[in-house]
Amino acid sequence: MKTIKRIVLLLVIIAVCICGYEVKLCYDKYTDALSVKSLDVAVEEIMSKPHYTVYDDIPTIYFNAVVATEDRRFYKHNGFDIIGTTRAVLRDIKEKELLEGGSTISQQLAKNMYFPKDDTLQRKIAEVFMALKIEREYEKKEILEFYVNGIYYGSGYYCIYDAAKGYFNKKPIDMTEDECTLLAGIPNAPSVYSLDANPDLAKKRQEKVIECMKECGYEIE
Q: Are 194 and 154 in contact, with CB atoms under 8 Å apart?
């Protein structure tokens, strides 16, 4: 029995050491990314886009739709949401398909700014470190503003202004409630939900967005 306990203890120690080493590699990946491009510079790159749109020039209902769909605990966490991640995983298991990724909006922003083509597990953890830093240095409204100006909406539109103009021929602030909830669902899978490519699928995705908003207590007609 003592021998078995010693073996188990040794295995636990080895596992902890391996995990610690992997986390160290992920943290190094995070610091290396910042050494190449500071967070201020990464944010400036987004804000320097020709059609960058500030928070107050975007309908509140659009932000509500994004938060309800992508990160419903956005205003409660500090960049990483263990509750939201667990909920997303359990839901995916229950539905037997990948419905939710579990990443917070801040994590998605971190990926878009620093790790857009890196799909490794190390990137995922480095992304968490970056998201925590983003949350420390910027307010929630700023993070949402950066996010909607730096995500892909399908059909060649890489910011909310271009998407609103391209799909609806309107500035973001002039979008209707229907257009806001429709647009909010597209970035989840831009090539699938693009209004130009698959308008019917985009409408079905919109239904999901509205359902999420109601679950979160947002008023919507």
A: yes
